[in-house]
Amino acid sequence: MGNMNFKNMILRLSIAVCMALLFAATATAQRMIRVSGTVYNAAETKKKVPVTEAEVIVYSCKTVAEGEKLKKELDADNLDVAIFLDPETVTKIDHNGYYEILVPDNGSLVFKAEMSKAVMVRVNNMMKIDVSIDLGLQLEEVVVTGIRTELQPEPAIGGLMGDMFIVSNTFQLPQQMGSDYSRLVIQPYTVMCDGLNNDTIAFNKPIVVDGKEFRNAQYRKMGYVFQRDPLENYVRKDMTLTDEKLDIVWNDTVRVPNPGVNYSCYADFIVENMNALGYNKNFQIVSCKNKRPMQFLEYSLIYKEMDFNSKFNREKAQIEKRNSADRVSLTFEVSSDKLVDTPENMQNMNKIKQKLQDILNEPGATLKELYITGYSSPEGSYASNMVLAEKRTKKVLDDVVSILPGSVNRMLYKVPKAVVKPWTEVVDLLEKDSLYKEAEGIKEILEKYPENMDRQSIAIARLPYYRPTIVNYLENLRQVEYSIKFDMYREPTDEEVWEAYQKKGMDGIYTRYEYWKLFQMIKDDKELERFAMKAYKESGENPWPLAANIVAVQYLKRDTFDVKLLEPLVDKTVYVTNYERKNIDTKRMELINPAEIVNNQLCMYIKAYNYMDASVMAQMLPDDSQYDLVKAFAWALGGYYKGGRNKEEVERCRKTFETVKNSSKRNAVIMYLALETKAGNNMAEKAIAELPQEEAMTWYLKSIVTARRGDAGFADTMMNLYQCFMIDKAFIATAKNDGEFTDEVVEEAENMLMF
Amino acid sequence: MKVKSFIFKIFVLAVMALQCNDAAAQLLAVKTNALLWGNLTPNLSMELVTTKKTSLEGTVFYSLDNTPFNTQLMGAQAEMRYWISGRPMNRLFVGVSLSALRYDTTLGIGNRHQGDAIAPGIVYGYALPVGNRWNIEFAAGVGYFWYNERRYNKKNDNIWAEPYNEHGGRMIPTKLCVSCAYLF
Q: CA dist A46 to A41, A56, A394, Å?
C-alpha cells in the first residue's frame, strides 16, 4: 500500500515536473496574450481624444523585428504586404478607438491610420496598450471657394454669316485687377487663321471701362477735353471699374474679306492707372474654329447672255469717230531742229508715219485731225526753249505729213503745239528713282523762285549733282506726242466681215458694227473673250455693255471673276434695272443697268464673297421668277434669311429661306441647320432622312445635328463622323475647323478610323 | 512792393490760363488749413501745377494776438510737391518744404520762447478728391528747425527788450494740415 502511494507520488511528481518543464519551455519561447487598448489622436494636445472617425488598422507581429519591417513597408506605401497577412493578426479599431488583438507577449503591434506614419509598439507582456497617432485636427466643415486670380478668357466659337464674322465672349476680370483709380481697355482684333500670315484683318470695337475716381481725375485733368478723346465713345457707361471681380460681355460683328477661310480674334487687355500701364496682356478670345452652316450650300450661278438684236444692242453701220494716240522719244541736235541720225530716231519717226499710213489704207477711214505736241526740257532760257520746241514740232509735223497725198493733206486739220516741261517733272522722275535728296534740292529752288523759270534753271545748274545726275533725266523729257483722229464708215456683209477678220486677225481695226457681227460669228470661247475684251477697252469713255457682258459670261463659264469689269456699267444710284434714260451728252436714249449685266455682276460678287454688294444687286433685279433663285442665293449666303427689321424684310427673309430650302434636298437640311434653333435641328434631322445615305456629306450633316445635343450626343456624333470619314477623308480637315464639333469628338472619330 | 507785384503777375497769368480751358481743372488751387484756424491763425495757400507730376505750393499765415494755445505764428512756407499717383492734386504726394516764421509761445512748461526760425523739411500727404473742384488734403512733415530766440521766464513781460539768448537747431514737425481746397 505504502509502495503504491510512493509510486503514485513519483508518477505525479514526474508528471508535475514534466508539466513544469513543458510550461517552462513555452514560457521562454512565446506566449499569446490578448492585448487591448485605445488609440488616441496625438494632434489633440489639450486632452486625450480617442480616434473615432478615422480607420486605424492594428497589425500584430510575432517579433519586434517583424514589426519594424512591416512599419517600414507601410510607411513606404507598400500596401500589398498587408494583403497577404493572416487575417487573425489584423484588426481595426471600433468607433470608440478601442481594439483587442492576440499577440505574442514579446511581439509587437503596428498601428496604421489612413495618411499618418505607422506607429510600432513593443508588447513586452503588457495587456493594455494605449497609443497616440497624429491624425491632424478635423475641421467641422470646409467650404472651398475658388477665386479668380488671373484673367484667363476661354476662346469662344465665332460664327460666319455671309461675310460677317459674328463674335462674342465674356471676360471675367478677377479681383484686384482693376481699381477705382484705373481704366481698363480691351482692344480685340480679328486675324486670319491660315497659320502663315496672321495679318490683322480688322480692329474690333474696343471696350473701355473707367474706374469712378479715374474718370473724375480725367475730368479734372488740365487741358483734357472729353470730346477729343478717341476712346471716349467706347467708354461703357453701364459699369465702373473697381477692385471687385467684373464680368464684361462682348459681342461684335466685323466684315471679313474671304468667308471661305477661318478667322479668330485676339485682344489686348490693358489696365492703366494715372501713372502707367499696370497690366498688359494678349489673349486669344475667339478660336480658329468657326461655325459656318452655309459652307455646304450647293448653288449654281445662272449667268445671263444679252440679246444681240434687242433695241439697245443692235448695231447699225455708222460713222465712227476714232482716236489713235501715242508718244515717242525723238532726239534732236543741240540748239537745232535737225533730228540726230540714230536708228531709234528713225524707228520712232517711222512709227508715226506707219500709223498714218495704216489709217490711210483702212477702207472707209477718213483722216480728220493730227495733233503733234513737242516737249522740250527746261534747262536754259525759257524763251529760247520755247522757240526751239516750236521749230522742232513744226519740223516733225512737216516730215510726217509729207507721206500723205496732197488731197488728204489739204483736208487734214494739223495742230502743232510746243511745251517746255517744268522742273517739277524732273522732281517726279528723281523721286520715282528714290533720289529724294536731289529732288528735295530742286524743290527748294522752285519754292524760292516760284514764277521765274529762267532763274530756276540757273540755280539748278549750279547744284553739285547737276551734271552727273540731273542731265540724264532731262533726256527723258524731250518727247513728241501725237494723236490722230479719224472717221470710219463701213457697211460690209457678214462674209466680208469674216474675210477681213481672217486677214487682219485680232489686232486689226474694226468698226463697232463689225465687232457686233463678229461677236455672233466667233465660236471659240477664248478667242471671243479676248476679242470682246478688246472691243470693250476700245469703247473707253462710253463702255459697251454688250462687249462687257460677253467677257463676263466667259469669266463665269470659266468659274473666275473680276468685279471691276462690270462695275462701270452698273449705276447703284438707280435702283432698278433696264431703266431707259436720255444721255445728256449724246442726246441718245440709253439703257441703264441692263438686267443681264446686273445679274452677272451679282454672280461675280458672290464669287468674290462680297455679299453686301451682291444683295444690293439682288435688290435691283426685277420681280421675275427667272431671277428668284439667284436672288435667294445672294441673300441666303449674305445671311439675310432670318430676322429682319420690318415687315417687308421679314417677308423677304421668309421667301429667301423657302426658295433656297426648296432648291435641293441638301439645301433644305442646311437651311434648317442655319436657323440654329431646336426646332430647326429637328426639322434638319427629318430632312436628312431623305438624303442619299451612302454620301459622306449626309453623315457629316447628321453629326452636326447630334453634336448640337451637347454631351448627350457625344457618342452619336463620334459614330456619325467616323462613318463620314470612312467614306471621305477630306472631311477630317473640315471637321477640325468646324466650330460645331469639339476637338475631342473629332479626335475620337479619327482614332476609330485608325483601327 | 516788388514781391507783391510779382505775385500779382502770377495770379493774373493763372487766371488768364484758366480762361483758356473752362472744363478742365487742375491748374490752380486755393486752400486753407483747418488745423491752423484752430489756433486762430488765418492762413491761405495757393498751389500751382508746374508739370505733369509736380506742383508748387505757397502758404502764408498770421496769428491773432490771443490764441487758444498761446502760440503766435507768422510766416510763410513754400513747398514743391511730386505726385506719386501720376496726376497733380490727386492722391499721394511727397514734397520738400521751406518754412520761415516768427513765433512767440508759452506753450508747455518752462519758458516763453520768442524768436525767428527757418526750417527746411520733407512732407508726405494725400489729397482726397471729393468733387470735381473740391479736395480735402492731409499732410504732415518734419524738418530741421533752425532758430534764434529769446528764451526767458514766462512772467517776464518785457521780453522784447531782452536780447536774443538762444540759438540752435533740432528736428521737429514742421507741417501738419487738414486743408480744404478749391480747384480752379
A: 11, 22, 125
Q: Which residues of B touch A181 (CB under 8 A)?
A: 85, 91
φ/ψ of residue A484, rounded to 5:
-115, 125
pLDDT given at position A558: 84
Number of separate domains in chain B: 1
Contact A225 B183 (CB under 8 A): no
List chain A residues with CB under 8 Å of B183: 220
Question: Rounded to the nearest 10 degrees, what angle do helices A678-688 and A696-707 cross at?
Answer: 150
Contact between residue A684 and residue A296 where contact means Cβ atoms under 8 Å apart: no
- CB-based contact (8 Å) between A212 and chain B? no
Mean pLDDT of B96-107: 91
Q: Which of B26, B85, B86 sits opposite A220 (nearest CB)?
A: B26
3-class state of residue A22 by DSSP? helix
Cβ–Cβ of A220/B25 closer than 8 Å?
Answer: yes
Cα A178 to chain centroid distance, Å, stands at 32
Residues A630 and A619: their CA atoms lie apart, in Å, by 11
Look up the CATH number of the domain holding residue B21: 2.40.160
- A180 shares contact with chain B (CB less than 8 Å): no
pLDDT at A267: 92
CB A107 within 8 A of CB A60: yes
Alpha helices (runs of H) in A404-435, residue ranges in sequence order: 406-411, 423-432
Q: Is A191 left (phi over 0), alpha (psi -120 to 50) or beta?
A: beta
Mean pLDDT score of chain B: 86
Q: What is d(CA A52, CA A93) in angstroms, rounded to the nearest whole number? A: 8
End-to-end CA distance of chain A: 100
pLDDT of B57 reads 94
What is the predicted pLDDT for the residue at B23?
45
Determine, for residues B183 and A273 on separate chains, whether the beta-carbon distance falls below 8 Å: no
Closest by alpha carbon to A222, among B109, B62, B88? Answer: B88
Is any Cβ of chain B less than 8 angstroms from the Cβ of A228? Answer: no
B56 Cα to chain A: minimum distance (Å): 15
* SS3 state of residue B129: strand
Q: Is B86 left (phi over 0), alpha (psi -120 to 50) or beta?
A: left
Q: Identify the pLDDT of residue B79.
A: 95
Spans of chain A, pLDDT less than 50: 1-2, 24-27
B residues 55-84 near A, CB within 8 Å?
84
Dist. CA A522–CA A498, nearest whole Å: 9
User: B54 at the A interface (CB within 8 A)?
Assistant: no
Query: What pLDDT, on the 0 to 100 scale, is given for residue B100?
Result: 95
Mutate to test the interface with B, among A221, A225, A228, A273 (most CBs of B within 10 A): A221
- Rounded to whole angstroms, how far apart are CA atoms A95 and A97? 5
- Count of beta carbons in the 10 Å neighbourhood of residue A29: 9
A-interface mutation test, from B47, B87, B182, B183, most A Cβ less than 10 A away: B87
Would you call A222 and B23 a contact, using CB atoms and an 8 Å cutoff? no
* Structure letter (DSSP) for residue A154: P
B21 contacts in A (CB within 8 Å)? 222-223, 225
Q: Do B49 and A222 touch (CB under 8 A)?
A: yes
Q: Pick from A154, A254, A256: which is nearest to A206 by CA?
A: A254
Domain encompassing residue B26: 2-183
Predicted pLDDT at A82: 65
Which pLDDT score is estimated for A728? Answer: 85
Q: Determine the Cα–Cα distance for residues A519 and A509; give it in Å rounded to an integer.
A: 15
B89 — contact with chain A (CB < 8 Å)?
yes
CA distances (Å), origin A217, targets A213, A262, B124: 6, 43, 20
Contact of B25 with chain A, judged by CB distance below 8 Å, is answered with: yes
